[in-house]
Amino acid sequence: DSGVTQTPKHLITATGQRVTLRCSPRSGDLSVYWYQQSLDQGLQFLIQYYNGEERAKGNILERFSAQQFPDLHSELNLSSLELGDSALYFCASSPSGSYGYTFGSGTRLTVV
Amino acid sequence: EDKVVQSPLSLVVHEGDTVTLNCSYEVTNFRSLLWYKQEKKAPTFLFMLTSSGIEKKSGRLSSILDKKELFSILNITATQTGDSAVYLCAGTDMDSNYQLIWGAGTKLIIKP
Q1: CB atoms B41 and A105 under 8 Å
Q2: Does A45 reach chain B within 8 Å, measured CB to CB?
Q3: What's the pLDDT tens digit per position in B48-85?
Q4: Are A32 and A93 spatial neighbours (Cβ–Cβ below 8 Å)?
Q5: Is the CB of residue A103 less than 8 Å away from at least one CB of chain B?
């Protein structure tokens, strides 16, 4: 167990639907990062939060949004889902001022 | 645009062989390069390299950075089937709030 908890582990949903992925960072880590990894693709950075505030945005679609709550857990909301959104979504956390990422085990999203 | 390129994309060797994985980078205001191992799920941290020419070693794995030629290599000696994984490298810059710029990975398969 890495200390970063992601739920659910698997999610199957239909096109056009909306889902919420949840991440609890490692204790003490203030930064949360969301990544998308499609089949045989590298990790695509989506968004970063630091202590409740959005810090940086990557290639995140407008249909996707995220937030980090006061208890530091984070949620990634994916709406109007398309088949191409099927992927593994990772959350990672790190302490303040560190590249020491710890990844969660990911949520595998399948859009049918 | 910053980028990290890994080669080869995939590699199949026999148990006991030695492999060298390559990672080249073009990162403005480069800070460091990180190596991760991804088996079935979450990437796990291997090394962080910041200084040119200094080898980092952990068991049969070692890595070195060349900041003049802008690349890093990851060596695995006496490979075992448990080394089969995707190996990811990522660059960091001075400005980016601890985001990583990821390569696409090298898929390494070790045959018994």
Answers
A1: yes
A2: yes
A3: 998 888 889 999 999 999 999 999 999 999 999 999 99
A4: yes
A5: yes
